[in-house]
Amino acid sequence: MDDQALIDRVDRLCRDTLVPIVRSWPEHDRTCRPLIEALARENLFGLALPEAYGGAGQLDRYSHLLCLLRERFGYHEPLIDTHFAIQGLGTSAILRMGSDDQHARYLPGLTSGSMLFSFALTEPHSGSDVLGMKTRARRDGEDWIINGSKMFISGAPDADVYITFARTGGEEDRRAVTAFLIEKDTPGFTARGDIHLQAPHAIGYLDFDECRVSDRQRLGESGDGLRASLGTLEIFRPSVGAATVGMARRALDLALDVAKSRQAFGAPLAALPGIRLKLGRMAALVAGGAALVARAAQLRDAGQRTVVEGAIAKAFATEAALEVIHDSQQIHGGRGVIVGQEIEALVRAARPTTIYEGASEVQRSIIGRAEARRGEAGGARGLTAPPPGKLGDLLGAVRASYEAWLASAAGGQSDDPAFHVRLAESAMAIEAAETVADGDARMWLALAAARTLAGDIQRTGSRVSTATLGDAAAGLGASEDAIALRLADSLL
To answer: What is the pTM of this model?
Structure first.
């Protein structure tokens, strides 16, 4: 099945089956098993799983399919996406690192929808700081004894299996972390809910009190838990961006409906330049986020590491989506803040995406540190062949100015965490413009990247000239606002 056929199939399924299930489910802070069962009947959990366990065998397209499905679920109903993503988070490491026995025990339960899974990494005092975890496991013969607690665990208290991470080394070896598969009825283990979010879903706490598990429940090698946890996050971070791209597309469609149908001052709301500027900008941001997500998924499926690309995709797409959704709410006017309106629900659903699976500040740190190291080493990045014409000139000037700024910091500012933040901001803006397809959205993103870069160069006190950026932007022959209006006109 090609991508468009799959999209059409998923859209029909959402409209006809999945959305009605969610809307009729009274307990949004508990797992909706009828939704899980409906997803499983369509084999959507198994598209990228081995055929031996009920899947469709498309393992080489795991990241692409994950992002495609999450975008469509995010568009139709974010709670569908949440249920789908939790199952993937809880099984990705099993698929990649599990033994044959673990595959046989757990993967059929995923594809059939008969088992619920959860990813248990976060603790009360350590979220993105994985090395700060305090949960410990000690060896006792053929078993392990686990003590500690977890918090903000999506899927709790309903999951049947929790991939749990615990420290198994001494104080001096914080990287010695091991992953375990904890089943819900294990003695000494308790899962509880009682965390109430602005966009509710099943989420809670895990407690381990002398919890004894067999060594057969260890996932991967002892001390290999960071590879299991960080590898899962590397795969799933772009897919968070994909889900928010779907939410942003929906918010843009809702805004267009309001702008065309609502009358103000004797004309449609869309006649107001301020509204059209918002709509055009929203369209460009959606296009940029979608392009970065697609790139990260493609590279991951090709077998490349995507730590930086995944961080860029998640940070840019989620933050862009928040801007788009809030602008849509603004266009809705007073109706946009009525509890229960679709745009109001989207605002609540999108807000946590810049926090979980690595907050935006953490993503900026990842990007900035990596770029600073590249600057020290002199490595290349960016377009190998910019498009012809004035747009290519602008993209080339932006990349050249960025590289000059990066090189000028070598041996000095390159070690400054605050400088890393500015590097990351510019890198995200530039790579969105470099990655998106040709058209007005790319022109708008290129001008926005030039503006962002010029500001970051000035904020860091660099002596690198920004004159070429201004000249190249002027040479494009159109301003950000003019291009935004063109984008809006094409939508309307």
So the answer is: 0.96
